[in-house]
């Protein structure tokens, strides 16, 4: 939601270009005016998943009058333009302070405050026959967060899941990877959604962003046969059904399983010969052994799709910063080569950079999952 800035910067004078503005709040008080004439740079890096968003503020302290902030202080940031107001970008907890010189300068580094201590504390427990929805809601409740879960993922049943010396954040990231999903915390919400599925913190689908060449300063498009794999293999060992085997996913999206039944009690286990079809000549083997065939196939398929998304990537620095942009938004680009314009994209990382010279936004994008499934780019 966009709110108009107060006590941030002077109003624009007729005929001048819009001026970038920012607003910093501490304990409910607007402290922006303390930094007037001192701000050298402000950089906000907005990441996907549980990688913490990072805020870096560099201030001029040539006269030595700046006080060092306390570690743990919480700062709320809003960014925008004087002609359109500011957009709330979240709350950040100061965890690094650096003073250097000459000339003297103070650097304040803060990371997103949504990642509570319980989310990052290691735990020991197991889950059986639990839906993703129930798992995410339980973790969200313990951390005083609201849960937003994609409907097609909420009812998926996890037959068995061990959490051994692992934080809830790592656990959710691992589960998300097996379902080609994203688990993240934004604005007091714990989101568990399909990778590239644009949902607001309230669960409402978000519109596609249009990025034109005219709005960009610099860009880079790269196509790479990044990992050079033509298949993904996952192993499983189902102790309840006494079966073991492997699943292979390749470009044809086919999966064949070789299952070896457990030997009868008292008999020597036969030597197992594993064969698969299709049999790609260069497969990526997942290191984890899954509890069921279905889990192995799901993980292999998710990894295959993830590999295909990494084949092409696109980045652009917008000459006029866009505070409304954030990771997981779908995007359509226009004004470049047909191979670029005709591809559906998803924003994966957003870096806002504000200095006395202006405000820019750098976007990093990957191929949208729908594009891998044959759907056309959004109009």
TrEMBL record:
Region of interest called Disordered, as start-end residue ranges on this chain: 258-278
InterPro entries noted in UniProt: Phage_Baseplate_Hub
Pfam family name, one: Phage_GPD
Protein name: Bacteriophage P2 tail protein GPD
Species, as recorded: Cupriavidus taiwanensis
Gene transcribed to yield this protein: gpD
């Amino acid at each position: 939601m966009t709110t108009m800035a107060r006590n941030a910067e002077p109003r624009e004078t007729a005929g001048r270009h819009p001026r970038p503005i920012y607003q910093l709040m501490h304990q409910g008080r607007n402290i922006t005016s303390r930094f007037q004439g001192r701000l050298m740079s402000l950089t906000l890096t907005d990441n996907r998943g549980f990688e913490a968003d990072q805020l870096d503020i560099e201030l001029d302290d040539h006269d030595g009058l700046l006080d060092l902030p306390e570690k743990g202080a919480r700062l709320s940031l809003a960014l925008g333009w004087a002609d359109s107001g500011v957009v709330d970008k979240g709350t950040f907890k100061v965890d690094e302070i650096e003073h250097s010189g000459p000339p003297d300068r103070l650097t304040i580094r803060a990371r997103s405050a949504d990642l509570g201590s319980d989310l990052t504390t290691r735990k020991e427990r197991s889950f059986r026959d639990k839906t993703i929805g129930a798992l995410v809601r339980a973790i969200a409740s313990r951390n005083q967060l609201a849960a937003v879960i994609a409907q097609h993922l909420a009812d998926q049943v996890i037959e068995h899941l061990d959490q051994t010396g692992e934080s809830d954040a790592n656990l959710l990231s691992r589960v998300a990877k097996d379902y080609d999903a994203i688990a993240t915390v934004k604005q007091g919400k714990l989101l568990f959604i399909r990778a590239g599925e644009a949902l607001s913190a309230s669960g409402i689908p978000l519109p596609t962003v249009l990025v034109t060449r005219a709005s960009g300063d610099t860009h880079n498009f790269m196509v790479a046969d990044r990992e050079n794999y033509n298949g993904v293999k996952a192993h499983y060992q189902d102790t309840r059904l006494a079966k073991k085997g492997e699943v292979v996913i390749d470009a044809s999206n086919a999966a064949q399983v070789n299952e070896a039944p457990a030997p009868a009690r008292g008999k020597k286990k036969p030597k197992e010969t594993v064969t698969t079809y299709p049999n790609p000549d260069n497969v990526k083997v997942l290191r984890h052994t899954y509890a069921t065939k279905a889990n192995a196939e799901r993980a292999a398929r998710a990894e295959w799709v993830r590999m295909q998304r990494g084949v092409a990537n696109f980045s652009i620095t917008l000459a006029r910063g866009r505070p409304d942009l954030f990771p997981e938004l779908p995007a359509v680009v226009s004004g470049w080569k047909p191979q670029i314009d005709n591809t559906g994209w998803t924003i994966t990382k957003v870096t806002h950079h504000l200095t006395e010279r202006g405000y820019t936004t750098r976007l990093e994008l990957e191929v949208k999952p729908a594009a891998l499934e044959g759907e056309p780019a959004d109009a």
